[in-house]
Design brief:
The protein is mainly beta and 92 residues long. It has one helix at 50-53, and strands at residues 5-13, 22-29, 57-60, 78-86. A 4-stranded antiparallel sheet has the order 2-1-4-3, with no helix packed on it.
């Protein structure tokens, strides 16, 4: 049995499109730091679709919703959730 673990990447975009600019991100690592390193600094991808080319699997995309007004505040609206499963220490 392998010791595979999950890494999850949340990317929030400026628009509902997977090709829209990433404006925020969050990383969750189930390998306890023994898998591929977490991205540092700015978002790891300029657009969410770039994560697909790096081997991430898309598990959630933003659902339809009302268009925000210029005066609306709150949570980031357009969230894409990606995952990859890695072998800790093996980096893949």
């Amino acid at each position: 049995m392998t010791d595979r673990r999950q890494q999850v990447l949340f990317l929030w975009t400026a628009e509902a499109s997977i090709d829209a600019s990433v404006i925020a991100w969050s990383w969750h690592d189930g390998t306890d730091g023994r898998g591929p390193a977490a991205p540092e600094g700015s978002p790891p991808y300029p657009v969410a679709s770039a994560a697909l080319g790096d081997g991430w699997f898309l598990i959630q995309a933003p659902g339809p919703g009302a268009t925000p007004t210029t005066h609306e505040t709150g949570d980031f609206r357009y969230q894409f959730v990606f995952e990859r499963v890695v072998e800790p220490g093996g980096h893949g």
